[in-house]
Amino acid sequence: MRDVIEELVPAWERGRTAALATVVRTFHSAPRPAGASMLVTSDGAVVGSVSGGCVEGAVYELAQEVIRTGRPALVRYGISDDDAFAVGLTCGGILDVFVEPVSRETFAELDTVLRDLATSVPVGIVTVIEHPDPRILGRHLIVRGDGVTGDLGSERLTHVVGDDARGLLAAGRTSTIGYGPDGERDGAELRVFVTSFAPRPRMLVFGAVDFAAALTRLADFLGYRVTVCDARAVFATPARFPGADEVVVAWPHRYFAEQNAAGLLDARTVVCVLTHDPKFDVPLLELALSDDNLAYVGAMGSLRTHDDRLDRLRAAAVPEVALARLHSPIGLDLGARTPEETAVSIMAEVISGMWGGTGEPLGDRRTPIHHDLAAHDIVDVRDEDDARKLV
């Protein structure tokens, strides 16, 4: 969708209306994934594709109608074999396509989104694709790591959707979510489509051990791009870590330094040190703890190993403020025994740190279960001169 959005700029700047068609949901053997987009301008030009050619003709006609009427539409293509052939969807898959008019009036925030894309700032767009009130259909929220801008018609709905969208942005995921009329999480009367313009967050797992194999599988499931690094080639093999995106044979501290120098680590990066071997751990942790921009740095080991590790790091002149950022022994106290249970313990601590969780049993809480956005995180932009805060 990124290239298609950039092509919107000329028409948007001239005050013209274009139609943006986006695949928001797929079933079976659909030819393009959710997020695939096609732009139709007011003069009939087409950019992008929603199906690789299968239903473009039908979507093109709908897009022209949307431009004429100014009313967005959600259409399903290929709901049956007969319908599939009628519009050319011969693969037998099913596509839900949302077509919306895009202009300065319908998408005033487009220029700020483009600025974020140009500067590689993670940003997400929430679009209302189904709603009982046609006036809300097609409204947007703009999602960033530090908050949400926009208005979906009610404070509660804006609050809840914005909270969920921030989670998807943090994971670099694009998805459709259903809600009740006022943001109830168990409803389906309204749906939003969240487009995330952000790479998957990275997890660097140092130590090609059994615990690393379980951790990479779970981290991959949670949306991380996982790298396993170990200096021992006999252990660091792709066959042992099918959940990893890459397996690197290198000294851990050297690989970390190279990645950091190349600007490939950021505030969403998680570092897990599982070797509990001083010759690997200490040089690596010296570097990782010196970077206060990382999301999480954890190290495996017993309490005795932890104390010995701290002594070695202090001897290497690592300051106490940096040592305070180290999660060690790694993970939350779940009573874990197996590698898989330990992986859950580690990821639970990562998630808790990301969203401000306490790690306490939810049954012991007397406050809202979901850690909602702070009041200043959501701003209604209908009147920027007197923006009101949403609670």
TrEMBL record:
Signal sequence extent: none
Residues of the XdhC Rossmann domain: 203-350
InterPro entries: MoCofactor_Util/Proc, XdhC_CoxI, XdhC_Rossmann_dom
Pfam families in alphabetical order: XdhC_C, XdhC_CoxI
Coiled-coil region list: none
Domain XdhC- CoxI intervals: 11-78, 119-180
Gene3D superfamilies: NAD(P)-binding Rossmann-like Domain
The name this protein goes by in its record: XdhC/CoxI family protein
Native source organism of the sequence: Cryobacterium glucosi
